């Protein structure tokens, strides 16, 4: 596999292309132009406010990727996000994972900021049970897909962590039960959470 790396939200770079602020549409066109796209790493930086990008990401031909070392996804939430925006973001991530070839071997999938604790805390006076229920449903679907990949030996490991102002820290002890509530299957396989 060559050393191609694709990053959304920051830079896109590989042996042939170096473009700032790559959009999913540019990446999609690049994928379509390649005979057998291979990547050592794909980094996605996404937030609910990039709705157009989320729609475009869902339509990228992920199935065409023939080799992928790492998929790194960082989610950015804001107290301004609506419940629908938060759930749409997680659903987009689920669709991307589901769209990858079933037998494509992947070293690791890392998901940073899988839960929006600041958003939930900011709404402490509001009822967030509907949002939590919907997040559980969608994240459980992601969890099942990752679990199936691991069972088929096409996924080496999953990393769930929080990214605070550019510094990555694994989920704190007091948050582990909450993360396990969302990622039940993964809790049996990984000590990273």
UniProtKB/TrEMBL annotation:
Superkingdom as given in the UniProt entry: Eukaryota
Protein name, per record: Uncharacterized protein
Lineage: Eukaryota, Fungi, Dikarya, Basidiomycota, Agaricomycotina
């Amino acid at each position: 596999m060559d050393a191609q790396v694709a990053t959304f939200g920051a830079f896109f770079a590989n042996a042939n292309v170096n473009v700032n602020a790559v959009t999913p549409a540019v990446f999609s066109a690049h994928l379509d132009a390649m005979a057998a796209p291979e990547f050592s790493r794909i980094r996605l930086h996404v937030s609910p406010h990039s709705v157009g990008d989320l729609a475009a990401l869902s339509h990228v031909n992920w199935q065409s990727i023939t080799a992928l070392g790492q998929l790194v996804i960082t989610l950015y939430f804001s107290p301004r996000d609506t419940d629908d925006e938060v759930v749409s973001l997680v659903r987009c991530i689920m669709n991307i994972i589901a769209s990858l070839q079933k037998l494509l071997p992947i070293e690791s999938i890392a998901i940073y900021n899988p839960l929006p604790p600041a958003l939930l805390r900011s709404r402490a006076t509001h009822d967030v049970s509907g949002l939590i229920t919907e997040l559980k449903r969608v994240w459980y679907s992601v969890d099942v897909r990752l679990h199936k990949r691991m069972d088929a030996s096409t996924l080496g490991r999953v990393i769930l962590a929080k990214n605070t102002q550019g510094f990555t820290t694994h989920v704190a002890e007091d948050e582990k039960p909450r993360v396990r509530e969302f990622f039940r299957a993964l809790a049996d396989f990984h000590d990273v959470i």
